[in-house]
Amino acid sequence: MERFENVYGEVENLKGAMLETLAEMIKIPAISPNYGYEGEYDKAEKLLEIIKDWPFDKIERYDAPDERAKNGVRPNILAYYYGKDHDESSRLWVLSHLDVVPPGDLEKWTITDPFTPLIKDDKIYGRGSEDNGQSIVSSLYAVKALMNLGLRPKKTVVLAFVSDEETGSEKGLKWLMENHSELFRKDDLVIVPDGGNVDGSFIEVAEKSILWLRIKVVGKQVHASMPQKGMNAHRIALNLAYKLDKAFHEKYNAKDELFEPAISTFEPTMASNPADSPNIVPGEHTFIFDCRVLPNYKIDDILADAHNIAEELKKEFQDENLPEIHFEVLQRLDAPIPTDPNSKIVQSLKEALINLRGTNPKIGGIGGGTFAAHFRKLGIPAVVWATLDEMAHQPNEYAKISNIVEDAKTIAYLAIN
């Protein structure tokens, strides 16, 4: 423990450098081309510039092609700091993502502009400060503290800074796994500091499956004073949404206390139609369900049920051609087998939190998706953990400075123990 006290002190000494680095990261709007932006190229370049003189044993860059992005690529960076026996098969991965979400309504940013970092009251404000800049900086300076003290980690540490997490990882971790499978080993231990709670006591080991389902109903538009001449797509869509909501909740009603909430959720979230006047019966109506499904259920079964319910509804109408009902899967992630709560990475992180913070960690699952799921699909145990005020994607997003420092200490503890 005496050795760790030295590391603990060195992390504290690096707090100023952490804030400078995070400020530089916030200034660069690394937003996906999916939203009409350039991607992560400039942010990756800035990160490489910052660490170019650090004594990493190896820094690798893997550019996923994307003609929409700046210079046609989405960068992914791996920085290795070898352990005492760097030939061992098992490494400790710490994964952060370079991309951020768009700022949203600028009028709601009342503390500072989204990409103008501001330090105030133990907080650093700006888009991407918490999601995922905090973890980029915490992981970097956990290793920097070891470097400054001439200490080698017990296992080789791989710091991964990847693109495209916010829009599916097609050009980030998923692309790396599909195109460079040699990078990943079954005995690796993985921590993803991209989710957590305010005191850092929650260790996520499981995720629900995710299904975003868009449903479009086509009827016949007419004047609202003569509805008998048309087919009201809005009314049909409301009826269909009710039937789907009722059927999903009744059939997929199991509980798993590993998760909060402990049930599968099926939430209608968005609706629209082209009627631009109160006196128009709309001929189209579209709505979306956000489904977060316990891992014991299959997404294919839910989709099959949705189609069957739609076909039954169509039989209530005399017209052979209308209504039309179209389904589109906007996003799908089939949950892998959860990480074993008794696995080495879970127990090591639990030990670190007990020893450093005196907390009793809770192990559980979440409804959202992280790229830990991609590791779990390969059979590699992964946990999601960080100390967060949960400001991700919000206006006036911030990272708490004390969280940045304390998480760096925890990552350093994992590295040397």
Automatic annotation (TrEMBL):
Gene3D superfamilies in the record: 3.30.70.360, Zn peptidases
Origin species: Thermovirga lienii (strain ATCC BAA-1197 / DSM 17291 / Cas60314)
Any Pfam family hit: M20_dimer
InterPro entries: ArgE/DapE, Bact_exopeptidase_dim_dom, Peptidase_M20, Peptidase_M20_dimer, Peptidase_M20A
The keyword Metal-binding is annotated on this UniProt entry: yes
GO MF term list: hydrolase activity; metal ion binding
Record family assignment: Belongs to the peptidase M20A family.
Keywords: Cobalt, Hydrolase, Metal-binding, Zinc
Source organism, top-level taxon: Bacteria
Required cofactor names: Co(2+); Zn(2+)
Domain Peptidase M20 dimerisation: start-end pairs: 205-316
Protein name in the entry: Acetylornithine deacetylase or succinyl-diaminopimelate desuccinylase
Keyword Metal-binding among UniProt keywords: yes
